[in-house]
C-alpha cells in the first residue's frame, strides 16, 4: 500500500521534535522551596536547584512545570479509542478547551464534587509550546516545541448532558488537568508506550504510534487560526478504556521517557449547588460515555435522557 503523504489522517510524520540535533533529554521541574516555586533540574532521583542544593524528588512538593495562557485538547486521536467508540472520524481533528484554572500538579489531589459519580481518567501526553506559533510550516512544527510532559485529562461526565459540545464543566472543572512531574526537551514522541494505572493495576495501555494525527500535525493545524504562545499546552489524546474512579483511588500515568504522573482522587468539601444551573446526571448518555460506549457519538440512536 502506498504511504500517505504527511498530514493525512493515519500518516506517520518522519520529523522529530526539533530542527537541532537530538541530544540527551533534559528534564526540569518546578517545586516549592521555602514556599516559593523554583525551577530545578532532575538528575536521577535527585533534583538540583540553581544554587546547587540537591533535593529528593519524592520528598518535594511539585508545581505544574508549565505556565500556559491556554490548554487545548484534541478529541479522539488514538485508534484504540476510536474503535472503542465505533466512531467514524472526519478528515481533520476537532478540539476543546480546558481553562487554566483546571491546572494541577504531580502529587496534587483531584476533586470529585459531592453528588457526582462519573469522574474519568484519561492518560495523555502534553505538548508544550516554546515560541510563538502562527501560520507555521508543518515541516518546522517541531522547532516550536519547548518539550513534553504527562497529563491526565480528567472528565466529570456527570455534566455531559448539558456540556457535551463545549466540554466546559466536563473537562474544565477545578483540579481536572494535572500535568508533570517535569518538562522534558529533545524527546522523540514516536513509538512511545503510555500506560494509566489505578491503584497499581493497568487501566489503559497504548503507544504513540497509534495516534491518528501526530504532534506536529496538531500544532500546525491549530496555529492556522490560533496564536500559540510560549508555555501553551496541547493535550494529544488518550488510548481506549477511560473509566470512572472513586475517592481514595491513586491514578498514575506513565509515559516512556517522561516519567510517572501520580494523583489521588478526593471527595470535594462543597456540594454542587442545586438551586442554579444544570445538575449532575446519570442519564444513558452520561453512563455510556463514562463506560466507553457513547451512543450519541456513534450515531446508532439518540440517547435516552433522564
**Strand count:** 20
The CATH superfamily of the largest domain is known as Fumarylacetoacetase-like, C-terminal domain
- CATH topology descriptor of the largest domain: Fumarylacetoacetate hydrolase, domain 2
Query: What is the CA–CA distance across the termini?
Result: 48 Å
Strand content: 25-35%
What does the average pLDDT come to?
89
CATH class of the largest domain: Alpha Beta
Task: Describe the structure in your own words.
The structure is a single chain. The chain is mainly β and 306 residues long. It has two domains: 25-63, SH3 type barrels, CATH 2.30.30; 66-270 and 278-297, Alpha-Beta Complex (Fumarylacetoacetate hydrolase, domain 2), CATH 3.90.850.10. 11% of the residues lie in helices and 32% in strands. It contains six helices and 20 strands. The strands form three sheets. Strands 1, 2, 3, 4, 5, 6, 7, 8, 11, 12, 14 and 17 form a twelve-stranded mixed β-sheet that branches. The protein has a five-stranded mixed β-sheet with strand order 9-20-19-15-16, with no helix packed on it. A hairpin with a 2-residue loop joins strand 2 (36-43) and strand 3 (46-48). It is globular, with a radius of gyration of 19 Å.
Summarize it.
The protein has 306 residues and is mainly beta.
Produce the secondary structure layout:
Elements: E1 27-33, E2 36-43, E3 46-48, E4 54-56, E5 62-63, E6 71-74, H1 79-84, E7 95-98, E8 103-105, E9 109-112, E10 119-120, E11 123-129, E12 145-152, E13 155-156, H2 160-163, H3 168-172, E14 177-184, E15 193-198, E16 201-207, H4 215-222, E17 233-235, E18 244-245, E19 250-255, E20 259-267, H5 284-290, H6 295-298
Parallel strand pairs: 6-17, 8-14, 9-20
Antiparallel strand pairs: 1-2, 1-5, 1-14, 2-3, 3-4, 6-7, 10-13, 10-18, 11-12, 11-17, 12-14, 15-16, 15-19, 19-20
Amino acid at each position: 500500500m502506498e504511504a500517505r503523504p504527511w498530514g493525512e489522517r493515519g500518516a506517520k510524520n518522519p520529523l522529530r521534535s526539533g530542527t537541532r540535533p537530538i541530544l540527551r533529554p533534559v528534564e526540569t521541574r518546578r517545586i516549592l522551596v521555602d514556599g516559593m516555586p523554583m525551577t530545578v533540574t532532575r538528575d536521577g532521583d535527585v533534583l538540583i536547584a540553581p544554587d546547587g542544593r540537591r533535593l529528593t524528588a519524592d520528598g518535594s512538593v511539585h508545581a505544574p512545570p508549565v505556565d500556559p495562557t491556554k490548554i487545548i485538547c484534541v478529541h479522539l486521536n488514538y485508534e484504540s479509542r476510536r474503535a472503542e467508540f465505533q466512531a467514524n472520524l472526519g478528515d481533520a481533528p476537532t478540539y476543546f478547551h480546558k481553562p487554566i484554572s483546571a491546572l494541577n500538579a504531580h502529587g496534587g489531589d483531584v476533586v470529585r464534587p459531592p453528588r457526582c459519580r462519573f469522574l474519568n481518567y484519561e492518560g495523555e501526553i502534553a505538548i508544550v509550546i516554546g515560541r510563538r506559533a502562527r501560520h507555521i510550516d508543518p515541516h518546522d512544527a517541531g522547532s516550536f516545541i519547548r518539550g513534553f510532559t504527562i497529563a491526565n485529562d480528567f472528565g466529570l461526565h456527570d455534566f455531559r448532558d448539558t456540556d457535551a459540545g463545549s466540554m466546559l464543566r466536563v473537562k474544565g472543572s477545578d483540579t481536572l488537568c494535572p500535568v508533570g512531574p517535569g518538562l522534558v526537551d529533545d524527546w522523540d514522541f514516536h513509538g512511545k508506550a503510555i500506560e494509566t494505572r489505578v491503584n497499581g493495576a493497568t487501566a489503559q495501555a497504548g503507544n504513540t504510534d497509534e495516534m491518528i494525527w501526530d504532534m506536529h500535525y496538531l500544532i500546525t493545524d491549530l496555529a492556522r487560526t490560533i496564536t500559540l504562545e510560549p508555555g501553551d499546552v496541547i493535550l494529544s489524546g488518550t488510548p481506549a478504556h477511560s473509566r470512572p474512579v472513586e475517592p481514595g483511588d491513586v491514578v498514575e500515568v506513565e509515559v516512556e521517557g517522561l516519567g510517572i504522573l501520580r494523583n489521588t482522587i478526593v471527595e470535594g468539601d462543597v456540594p454542587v449547588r442545586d438551586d442554579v444551573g444544570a445538575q449532575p446526571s446519570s442519564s444513558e448518555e452520561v453512563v455510556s460515555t463514562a463506560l466507553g460506549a457513547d451512543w450519541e457519538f456513534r450515531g446508532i440512536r439518540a440517547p435516552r435522557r433522564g
